Amino acid sequence: MTRVVLVRLAWMLPILFGVSVVAFALMRALPGDFAQAAAGTADLTPEALETIRRGLGLDQPIWAQYLVWLGGLASGDFGSSFVTHKPVLGELLPRLAVTAELTLMAGAMAMALGVFTGLASARLRGRTDWFVRGFNGLLLAVPNFVVATLIVLLAGLYFPELGIFNYTPFFTDPLGNLGSMLLPAFSLALAVSVTISENTRAAVLEVSSQDFVMVARAKGLRPGAILRNYLVRNALTPVITVTGLQLASLLGGSILIETIFTIPGMGQYLFDSITSRDYPVIQAIVLVAAVIVLLVNVLVDVAYARVDARVSYG
Amino acid sequence: MAEARSIVDPALDTRPIAEAPPARKRRHLLLALGIAMLLAMLLVTALGPWIAPYDAIATSPDSLAGPSTQHWLGTDSIGRDVLSRLIIGGRTTLLITFVAVSLAVAAGLVLGLVSGYVGGLADELIMRGLDIVFAFPVFLLAIAVVAALGPTVPNLILTIAIVYTPIMARVVRAPVLSVKRWDHVEAARSVGVGELRIAIVHVLPMVMSPILVQTSLTLANTIFTVTALSFLGIGPPPPDPNWGGMLSEARQFMELAPLTVIGPAVAIVFATLTFIVLANGLRDLLDVAGH
Questions:
Q1: Interhelix angle for A88-124 vs A247-261, to 10°?
Q2: Which of A11, A310, B11, B259 is 20 to 30 A from B153, comparing alpha carbons?
Q3: pTM higher than 0.90 for the full model?
Q4: How far is B74 from B68, CA to CA, in rounded Å?
Q5: Looking at this predicted complex, what is its ipTM?
Q6: Tens digits of per-residue pLDDT, B36-47?
Q7: Is the dihedral of CA A18, A24, A26, A28 positive or negative?
Q8: What is the interface size between A and B, counted as CB pairs within 8 Å?
Q9: What is the mean pLDDT of residues B250-275?
């Protein structure tokens, strides 16, 4: 077990290194002059530009710049925003918490919906199965930002008193906060529920054909007990894995959803930074998101290996 | 035996679900539906400039008009005909999608074939390199690259090609690993066929099925990525229309003119659905195991 964890973590290092190189290279691939972008204006005397350049360490060779940047990252220095000139990390963390809440809520909703439809599909078969699969196919075709936009449109047309843009911070009003996150999380959850639903269906069908379920029936266990203790419990392992692996699309989707519902999370921060060309913020967010996804994927792998003795890593 | 089956809990029934005779007909219906939807979409967008009733970027004082015989889907906030913009916007959106996915498929074919067929160090290097790209959430990577390079059509195409290459390469590589050990490959080698020719003539055709299915799925995903990037304001530059941009622009006044939002929303869903239906039809036809 320890070996599995160590092997997985060791594999992460070269990938993390690669991710950091890509994130760094993205910043230096900016069209035009990086110093000019940092100053936010093209109207600069050559001397002023030179000062900024030296201040940012741009006069050093590129590998030295990379090492300095990497050293900064290690001590939590993600650089300063081009717009507010404040450290990025301080602004990023509270927004990360909001996005984490949205993502977790959406994940929970997707899981509830996906497990329910998947279970119904696998147990009832026939028409229900066809209906669920058709419904899933349709859901898959409606991007989350389209769902969100249509929800906003419907709410605006028919329930104008609902006030769906009233984001409430959690510590001001916990219930109000959860209420204001409900519709955004729902629009994010729909498409993700499809993957969970299809995996639940496949997993339940697979477990159903196992001998121990036959034995359970033969010894007279009630169908409800079999469902609870045998089918769901065993089918849940791959389902949890799949949910974990959906994190990347949840994080990506949260950018769109937060922008639409004006939720002050990481996604909206990214959107604002794109508009104002605040590159250090873009870089920090992409880096943080990639690292989170990477970490969660490793955790999922390790958890999977822990519950399923058949999995081994060489 | 039939009676014995009937008292068994349906969940214990181990027969594959889609084995009943009618399913076979249904399968091809799905593929036919997908092809019909694709042809309809291609026809409308290809004939775009000739069938669009108005100039897609010409403004008029008649803004936010409801549907009428002059403007079937009404007009947007600066009086442009929504239907014309949808038709012309589809050209941009689909062009980016098709070119980008073609590039991703081409790159994936080369990398996957080299990686799977040659193996060894080349395999290690290629797959680990792709792992790095894979580590980024697709959409975030696309945002970062487009934001850095600037939102132009060529940059969008390049970005999308880059983010979808790893998945294509993996889909190509996996079956190549087993096909290259098949007897006909050994036979070809024993009569002196060159390695490059074996890879292209004797291995590649054997692995086309999963590639076709994955290409169709990637097309669906790309529609999402292209329209979502445009929705965030880093799509093809205005005033030329595209579906994601139209949806985003229309949000401001959507309660006054719901069709300005519903039009592009339906177009995006239709395009995505087309490729999903097509992928499922192909999967059934070619008998590719679902993932």
A1: 110
A2: B259
A3: no
A4: 7
A5: 0.81
A6: 999 999 998 888
A7: negative
A8: 151
A9: 87
Residues of chain B with C-beta less than 8 angstroms from the C-beta of A22: 132-133, 136
The answer to whether the beta carbons of residues A79 and A90 sit under 8 Å apart is: no
pLDDT (tens digit per residue) in A154-210: 887 787 776 677 777 777 777 777 778 888 999 999 988 998 898 888 888 888 888
Contacts of B233 in chain A (CB under 8 A): 271, 274-275
For residue A171, what are its two tokens? 């510590």
Superfamily of domain B30-36+79-286: MetI-like (1.10.3720.10)
Q: Could you read off the pLDDT of B193-228 as tens digits, one per residue?
A: 888 888 888 888 888 888 888 899 999 999 999 999
Domain boundaries, chain B: 30-36+79-286
Residue with tokens 């600069």: A44
State whether A141 and B145 contact (CB < 8 Å).
Answer: no
Tokens of A45: 């005397």
Residue bearing tokens 């004797």: B202
- Contacting residues of B for A208, CB less than 8 Å apart: 11-12
CB atoms within 10 A of CB A19: 23
Q: Which among A143, A152, A289 has CB closest to B268?
A: A143
Cβ contacts of A149 within 8 Å, gap of 6 or more = A260, B247, B251, B254, B261, B265
Q: How long a stretch of residues is chain A?
A: 314
As given in the structure block, the two tokens for residue B217 are: 């799925």
